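Q: I'm writing up a methods section and want to include an example of the input and output format. Could you take the sequence below and give the corresponding predicted structure tokens, formatted cleanly so I can copy it straight into the document?
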Amino acid sequence: MTIEIKVPQLPESVTDATLVSWHKQPGEAVSRDENLVDLETDKVVLEVPAPSSGVIKELKVANGATVTSGQVLAILEAGEGAVAAAPAAAKAEAPAAAETKAAAASGGKLAPAAKRMVEEHKLDAAQIAGSGRDGRVSKGDVIQHMAGKSSAPAEAKAPAKAPAVKLPAAVGSRNEQRVPMTRLRARIAERLIQAQSTAAMLTTFNEVDLTAVNEIRARYKDKFEKVHGVKLGFSSFFIKAAIEALRKFPAVNASIDGNDVVYHEYYDFGVAVSTERGLMVPVIRNAEALSFAELEQAVGDYAKKARDGSISLEELTGGTFTITNGGVFGSLMSTPILNPPQVAILGMHKIQERPMVVDGEIKIRPMMYLALTYDHRIVDGRESVQFLVAIKDALEDPARLLLQL
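A: Here is the clean output for your methods example:
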């Protein structure tokens, strides 16, 4: 019995997807629920599992093609009999499949963007050194590998005699690599341009003394982890502080829908996460109802899912307010860009010890700059400044978070 492998139903907001890579070729046996192909949408990479065990009979769509919901991708000859009848020496593996298997044999894993480059350029994945966790090969690793290959022939073909005309000495490699922008990267670019062209964006800054937060973390971090099974980080403090500030200034938690302003009476927090494929913003639903431990768990779980590609499209949609932490990369100050249709985003930065005047004395304090980018069409300057002051007050006196002051 033959079965058509089709593109699964895409979410309403997604019209099409790009076929990144096939994991099976015609003549190869597959097991039920085994991933056959990766499809890249504007936000996530979807896996298409085999509905039954059998043998791949035919591929209908090539790598790199654009596909839509319900489109036939391949034909599967289902049944254990089909598996047994598969020739021992099936068709020679396509270069892409061979390279992917070679990478697996060498202990490494190819990230989706890296896998696509390996297939397009017919590279030997086993020869590419992975810099990620457990030898995972990123797009940057592939580019670096290709740069090394392209420079070798140039050296081999160097002329034995110096040219008659004296040329400037080479100062380094001038290799270039041109690769297509991924759908996610293109979508990010589109949204950033949209935000810049439609919103009246302004950014206001403040700084916060994290001495009190550090003392709480130092005092309770071991017991907190033992009781809740998760580490006590900074994210939960900032989310809790932002929620209390949003309660006082509801316009900052609003969004724009056409000519309407929607004031949300709930708090769905987007938490920006940097991944190999680009920036993703998983959404923590009803953050106001979660404890410190539940918030830390949610942030950690979403960050992991975003980086390993297992996050769903539903977990990336919606959100009433976003926080982004450039401090993990060492950023001291920045101006974050809005995440439409939201009207504000909070930027956290590096914690740095600085001399501060406290009660007339100079003391060393762990300080962080905060940045709030907001849409001036909805949020006034007074509200934006007072919003940051409310966050600052809550973090410098965390008892306010318990008393909701």
